[in-house]
Amino acid sequence: MRALSRVQRLMAGAAATGLLAGGAALGMAGTASASAPTSAPAAVAGQHDHGGHHWNKGHWEKKWVNGHWEKKWDHRSWHDGYRDHWGHWHHGYWENCYKWVYIPGHWVWFWSDGYWG
After folding, report:
1. CA separation (Å) from 78 to 7, 75, 82, 90?
2. What CA–CA distance (Å, rounded) separates 74 from 30?
3. Low-confidence ranges of the chain (pLDDT < 50)
4. What does DSSP assign to residue 117?
5. How many Å apart are CA 23 and CA 34, to the nearest integer?
6. What is the model's pLDDT at position 9?
7. What is the rounded CA–CA span in Å between residue 101 and residue 68?
8. Taking a C-beta distance cutoff of 8 angstroms, is the pair 67, 53 a contact?
9. Whether the predicted model's global pTM rises above the 0.85 cut
10. Which end of the chain is flanked by fewer CB atoms within 10 Å, N or C?
């Protein structure tokens, strides 16, 4: 029991000494930094200077696309039957083909890549 209390006193003394030493070092650093001016980027900890560039992360953006005509594949387009100028009837038929379709203006989401800026 007596050994436990000695260890506790020893630990408490070491902690107090460490706090006092740390406080004194901190106080000295505060006066040293107040007397010597430094540049702003060097004073900020954790920032890395990459030649004046920084990384802009990629993100999703919305972009307005004006109305336009597009050529779209039509899987089943019906062509009506007709009568020619001799009076013969030509039957209608189904056909797979491209058609020009008007697409009204709309918003489109697109991915903007990250870049150094």
Report:
1. 96, 10, 13, 13
2. 76
3. 43
4. -
5. 17
6. 80
7. 9
8. no
9. no
10. N
Helical spans, DSSP H, in the chain: 2-35, 40-43
- Tell me the C-alpha distance between 107 and 14, whole Å: 66
Check residue 57 and report its DSSP letter. P
Q: The tokens of 4 are what? A: 């436990």
CB 80 within 8 Å of CB 92: yes
Query: Quick one: which of 72, 18, 61 has its CA closest to 10?
Result: 18
Q: Output phi, psi for 83, to 5 deg.
A: -110, 125
Closest CA to 14 of 24, 4, 6, 2: 6
Torsion on CA atoms 31, 34, 38, 39, rounded to nearest 10: 140
